[in-house]
Amino acid sequence: MNQSEKIKWGIVGTGDIAHRFAQAVKTVPDAALVAVASRSREGAERFGGEFDIPRRFASYEEMAAFEGIDAAYIATPHALHTPNAILMLTQGKAVLSEKPMAVNLRALDQMIAAARENDLLLMEAMWGRVVPGTLKLLELVGQGIIGPVRGIQAVFSYDMRDEPGHHAFQLQYGGGSLLDVGCYCLHFASWFAGSPVAEIKAVADVGAANHVDEQCAVLLRHENGVLASLNSGMTLRRESDGFLFGDLGYIHMTRFYAPERITVHLYDGGVTEFLTPYRGNGFEEQILEFQRCLRAGKRESDFIPLTQSREMARQMDEIRRQTGVGYPQD
Ligand SMILES: NC(=O)c1ccc[n+]([C@@H]2O[C@H](COP(=O)([O-])OP(=O)(O)OC[C@H]3O[C@@H](n4cnc5c(N)ncnc54)[C@H](OP(=O)(O)O)[C@@H]3O)[C@@H](O)[C@H]2O)c1
Questions:
Q1: Residue ranges per structural domain of the chain
Q2: Which residue in 23, 44, 50, 209 has its CB near the most CB atoms, within 10 A?
Q3: CA distances from 99 to 8, 87, 117, 142, 223 (A)
Q4: Ligand 1 centroid to 219 CA: how many Å?
């Protein structure tokens, strides 16, 4: 990669989140969106036309073989991240993969092995870790504003029963609320607990027909005694609230996983609000972080390291073991 040139991106998949990424990457300095790959010619042309992307590929394989990109962003259903990322890595492209990185730890380790064998950067698109709100939260907690964190609570639950055929309801694609949105709750807890998870207890409402967890509740006990209570769901609409509790007060966030408004409630009576807007649609910071790593020749991010993605995969494997949700890839 020539340091004086823009980083050239290709997108794999043309669905919802690919749109959000394309909007963001077009505003990031030093980034050029040069390619898109779809399973179909029509999909590639439609997306390419919408975002003025010069190279439009009618298969993922064709884009993998194209030498004109440095990095691929994987925006396909969860279970396809592993084969799609390995396809790109083995053809010399650094990879930013949507969350969760893989459907289980074994599949994630295959991606990591491909990145190491090809000496390339691999990062999970856990965008919320690097938005201004999370950085502010980490700073406030680090300053001891509520004292040491002792309790964590997070809910990420929506209702998409009107789309029963969606891949998020299908086992073969890594369906279920845990992988779709529960992963945000697990990441969030890990950022603030301050010690490793010692114990996991999980229950789930598993769909009788689809066999995925339509709702999932997880309790984590950390080695330092911090307890986290986490809920995910895809058949029940709830507010995406997050709380951090300490002896001196608590912090509340709406959309805890990437907050733009943080409210600190102190038990001595003070309430302080911090506004932490995104610079664009929220995806810019993860793109900037990925590009910083790429230009520095790093193989993983310090903010979203592969050890973090592995620990999340390990926890999700254990939660699914307890709730009886099994994937064909397990
Ligand atoms: N970071 C975030 O905030 C966020 C939010 C939502 C989703 N996500 C993640 O992004 C990934 C994609 O989610 P999405 O909501 O964008 O899904 P989506 O709208 O269904 O798009 C997925 C795309 O993947 C491609 N694809 C390849 N094989 C497919 C298959 N068998 N079935 C369906 N699509 C297939 C399709 O593009 P082509 O037909 O053009 O190949 C499709 O448009 C998921 O892993 C999800 O967890 C992240």
A1: 7-126+283-287, 132-277
A2: 44
A3: 22, 17, 22, 27, 26
A4: 29
Taking the C-alpha atoms of residue 83 and residue 69, their distance in angstroms, rounded to an integer, is 19
**Residue 180 alpha carbon, nearest atom of ligand 1:** 47
Given a cut of 90, whether residue 42 has pLDDT beyond it is yes
Identity (one letter) of the amino acid at 248?
Answer: L
| pLDDT at position 4 over 90 | no
Which residues, judged by CB distance below 6 Å to any ligand atom, belong to the binding site of ligand 1? 13-18, 38-40, 43, 75-78, 80, 98-99, 125, 127, 167, 180
- Over 80: is that where the pLDDT of 2 sits? no
pLDDT exceeding 90 applies to what percent of the chain?
98
Q: Does position 185 have pLDDT exceeding 90, yes or no?
A: yes
Q: How far is CA 80 from the centre of its chain?
A: 15
Indicate the fold that domain 7-126+283-287 takes in CATH.
Rossmann fold (3.40.50)
Ligand 1 pocket test, pick from 11, 14, 16, 60 with the greatest ligand atom count within 8 Å of Cβ, gives: 16
Q: What is the pTM of this model?
A: 0.98
| Nearest alpha carbon, ligand 1 atom 19 | 15
Class at the top of the CATH hierarchy for domain 132-277: alpha beta
Q: Which of 17, 184, 188 to mutate to test the pocket of ligand 1 (most atoms within 8 A of CB)?
A: 17
